[in-house]
Design goal:
The chain is an alpha+beta fold. The chain is built from eight helices and 17 strands. It comes from Rhizobium anhuiense.
């Protein structure tokens, strides 16, 4: 068996796939299918694309049905469900705040930040209605949706789906910090995945996971952030305040059966914080690892629930 490692750009990051197949395997066909899979997700869900399906929904007037592709409806449905279960900690309706603080296509704007912070907010699961049978959705009030906390995980799931359609039953698939493992390596071992040390200055492993038929996602405050008066603000929004989290954990890592769920729950855990996050994880049977900052080293200490 030959080891293949392929990758490419997507969603402002890179996708990758590692797997073993016979030496005569048609890797070019598999690569094209994976590129098509992540490109389709990007076309449907990226706020950086003005013409994307998600932005059509954002631009629609409240009360009007908007026809949407099945993939987007799947992600919206999962986002609403996890938002409800998490008590609103995960909220796909934070697009206005995300954009206002400069975590979207445009630069930060004081006026838009002020508007986002003063806005009267309802959770997305109270505003957005889905009609999966008819392939449509509608808003009951104005809301701007952002799927940055779940779309990459779904993209990883689509990567693994494309791989399976080409006969690849075992491999490791990733977009940025979202990873899904299928099967095992040829030696019978699981796939090794690092949990990154929460230090913005270096890239190093804090710990290692060995995955088999499992997905993992990490959300943190140390890679995507802005500096405001010398204070680092995370890209993860506080749904209640319409602004970045003020004192989040260094990172939250979640294991799940699919990467879309792991991605969304990692964001939810960042918002909930260690105490509330661990309590909910225990209740739901989620495997979660929190890392807290150790100021002198940036290494952090871990809190785990399953």
């Amino acid at each position: 068996m030959k080891r293949y490692a392929i990758n490419g750009p997507t969603m402002g990051a890179r996708w990758s796939a590692v797997f073993h197949m016979p030496s005569d395997f048609d890797v070019s066909s598999a690569r094209r299918a994976m590129i098509d899979a992540v490109t389709e997700v990007d076309k449907q869900m990226s706020n950086w694309r003005p013409e994307c399906d998600l932005n059509r929904l954002n631009a629609a007037r409240p009360g009007g049905w908007v026809a949407l592709p099945d993939g987007l409806l799947t992600v919206l449905g999962a986002g609403l469900a996890i938002g409800h279960i998490s008590g609103g900690a995960f909220d796909i309706g934070m697009g206005d705040a995300t954009a206002a603080w400069g975590f979207g296509p445009a630069e930060a704007s004081e006026d838009r930040i002020r508007t986002a912070r003063l806005a009267k907010r309802s959770p997305a699961h109270d505003v957005l209605e889905l009609d999966r049978a008819a392939g449509r959705a509608r808003k009951h009030s104005e809301m701007c949706f952002d799927l940055n906390g779940i779309a990459k995980g779904y993209g990883v799931d689509q990567l693994s789906k494309a791989a399976r359609q080409h006969g690849i039953e075992a491999g490791l698939f990733a977009i940025d910090g979202e990873v899904r493992a299928l099967g095992t390596q040829p030696n019978g071992r699981g796939w090794s995945v690092a949990v990154e040390m929460p230090n913005p200055e270096v890239r190093a492993a804090h710990s290692m996971l060995e995955l088999q038929d499992c997905a993992v996602a990490t959300s943190g405050d140390y890679r995507h952030w802005i500096d405001v008066a010398g204070y680092r603000l995370s890209h993860t929004m506080d749904p209640q305040l319409g602004m970045p989290l003020r004192d989040p954990p260094a990172s939250a890592t979640v294991l799940a059966c699919d990467c879309m769920s792991a991605d969304a729950w990692a964001t939810a855990m960042m918002v909930l914080g260690e105490a509330c996050g661990l309590a909910l994880a225990e209740k739901l049977g989620l495997s979660v690892l929190f890392l807290k900052h150790d100021q002198p080293t940036g290494i952090g200490c871990g809190l785990f629930a399953r």
